[in-house]
Amino acid sequence: MTLQIGSSAPDFEAETTEGRIRFHDWIGDSWCVLFSHPKNFTPVCTTELGYMARIKPEFDRRGVKIIGFSVDRVENHGRWAEDIRETQGAALNYPMIGDPDLAVSKLYDMLPADTQGSSDGRTPADNQTVRNVFVIGPDKKIKLILVYPMTTGRNFDEVLRVIDSLQLTAKHRVATPVNWQMGDDVIIAGSVPDEEARRLYPNGWTSPKPYIRIVPQPTG
Questions:
Q1: Got the DSSP string for 176-194?
Q2: Domain with residues 13-152, CATH architecture
Q3: Are the C-beta atoms of residues 109 and 3 closer than 8 Å to each other?
Q4: What distance in Å separates the CA atoms of residue 191 and residue 109, rounded to the nearest whole number?
Q5: Cα(57)–Cα(150) distance, rounded to whole angstroms?
Q6: What residues contact 215, with CB distance under 8 A and at least 6 apart?
Q7: What confidence score (pLDDT) does residue 1 get?
Q8: What is the pLDDT of residue 2?
Q9: Is 45 designated active site?
Q10: What is the pTM (predicted TM-score) of this model?
């Protein structure tokens, strides 16, 4: 199965640095960011994990749980966590999934389904496709998939921006334009006919073209 936006996020059980979880139960009614790493003790990933620890309060404020993932054993995660704390100035404050049998990597389409063996002896290059960010909604549907190369650190401020958009557009029938930031004007969704839009936005809208209907960001 190829995972796409709108696909159900596969459920699984796995060991983490905070104990064994069943993924869907762990998410509960929250939003979730699952971000994966090809191997422990990789330099770019070390910076990413530390940054996520520093900005975790921003995810908490939005009702989003964050969980890391690495193709390695959980017992190795603890040693890596010490390096992260020492070099990045922030200790891990969220769980990290271990995937020594590669089961979750294959379940989430990050490694080919026919990949054999375990994480033992595999190099970061062998697992280079395990560099994904998944944003998952409370309905357990995938809302965003980002895939990064090993040499490029991820922009988690952009992930926060996307979550702001996803949560806003899930509540209101709008879309957010290019480079939108919280508080900027938005676009009335194309699924809303003009008659209904006039009821929703009695003050009207700016319309440089009939299919572009710009209004202030809804509140509440």
A1: --TT--TTS-EEE-TTS-H
A2: 3-Layer(aba) Sandwich (3.40)
A3: yes
A4: 32
A5: 26
A6: 174, 185, 186, 187, 188, 201, 205, 206
A7: 62
A8: 87
A9: yes
A10: 0.95
pLDDT in tens, 36-64: 999 999 999 999 999 999 999 999 999 99
Task: Classify burial at 205, counting beta carbons within 10 Å of its beta carbon; exposed 0-12, middle 13-18, buried 19 or more.
Answer: middle
Quick check: 214 and 207 in contact, CB under 8 A?
yes
Q: List the catalytic residue out of 11, 139, 184, 194.
A: 139
The DSSP code for 30 is S
CATH topology of domain 172-215: Antioxidant, Horf6; Chain A, domain 2 (3.30.1020)
Q: Residue 32 catalytic?
A: no
Query: Parallel, antiparallel, or unpaired for β 64-70 and 31-37?
Result: parallel
Active-site position among 29, 32, 45, 184? 45
Amino acid letter for position 39: K
Q: What angle do CA 213, 62, 60 make, to 5 degrees?
A: 165
Find out whether 40 and 17 touch, Cβ atoms under 8 Å. no
